[in-house]
Amino acid sequence: EKHLNRMKKVYRRKVEIVLNVLKSFPQLEVMGESSGLHVVLIVKNGMNESELVARAKRERLKIYPLSNYSIIRRDDKEPQIILGFAGIIEEQLEHSLKALFKAWGMDEID
C-alpha cells in the first residue's frame, strides 16, 4: 500500500508538470487531461500528423497519431497526437516536452 500511495503522488506530479507546460503553448489544445498518464493534443501549427511524428522521432521521442486508432480517416481535421508520459522520469519531463514542441516549431509564451 505504501508503494501505491507513493506512485499516486508521483503520477499526480507528472500530470501537473505536463499540464503546466502545455499552458505555455497556445498552438496546443488538450483533451483527456484527467485520463491518467497520457493526453491527446490537438496540434494547431500547420503540420500534419506525419510531420509531427517524424520531428518527434528525430528528437528520440515517440508519439502516436490518434488516427492510428480510428476507422475513419479525417485529413480535414487538425492532427491529434497521443502524448504518453508514464515512462519519462519526473526530472526530465519538462525538458522532453519543451524539446518536442521546439521540434514542432512552437514558441513558448509566458
What do you see in this structure?
The protein has 3 helices and 4 strands; from the N terminus they run αββαββα. It has helices at 2-22, 49-58, 90-103; strands at residues 28-31, 38-43, 64-65, 80-84. It starts with a helix and ends in a 7-residue tail after the last helix. 16% of the residues are buried.
Task: Using brief descriptors, characterize the structure shown.
alpha+beta, 110 residues, single chain, 4-stranded antiparallel β-sheet, globular, 4 strands
Mean pLDDT: 92
Shape: globular
Kindly report the spatial arrangement of strands forming the biggest sheet.
1-2-4-3
Order of helices and strands: HEEHEEH
Termini separation comes to: 40 Å
Structural class: alpha+beta
User: How many beta strands in the DSSP annotation?
Assistant: 4
The description of the largest β-sheet is: 4 strands, antiparallel
Specify the helix fraction band.
40-55%
Compute the number of helices: 3
List the helices and strands and how they pair.
Elements: H1 2-22, E1 28-31, E2 38-43, H2 49-58, E3 64-65, E4 80-84, H3 90-103
Antiparallel strand pairs: 1-2, 2-4, 3-4
Helix pairs in contact: 1-3
Provide a concise account of the structure shown.
Helix content is 41%, strand content 15%. With 110 residues, the protein is α+β, with helices and mostly antiparallel strands.
